């Protein structure tokens, strides 16, 4: 299996488990942009592959998180720290003022 095929496999599994809406803000590309964008979503690795102590199989249920392009950019904004999806959610809620 090529890396591309493996990535596609994980991507499909992640979407099958988590759906194709952003886990942080709930954005859904298909709903917003229509059919053309349906199924578009970034898949974020919640644990950076480089921090694994030893190579292990990905668990799409906990390791992969669908995020919209905006949220995905924000979790990676700082090079030294990747935000968790929970941290990002909390940020969104407090910024929008409805906590
Ligand atoms: Zn989002
Ligand atoms: Zn990511």
TrEMBL record:
Lineage, uppermost ranks: Bacteria, Pseudomonadati, Pseudomonadota, Gammaproteobacteria, Alteromonadales
InterPro entries: HNH (IPR002711), HNH_nuc (IPR003615)
Chain ranges of the HNH domain: 22-78
GO MF term set: endonuclease activity; nucleic acid binding; zinc ion binding
Domain of life (superkingdom): Bacteria
Designated name of the protein: HNH domain-containing protein
Range of residues in the leader sequence: none
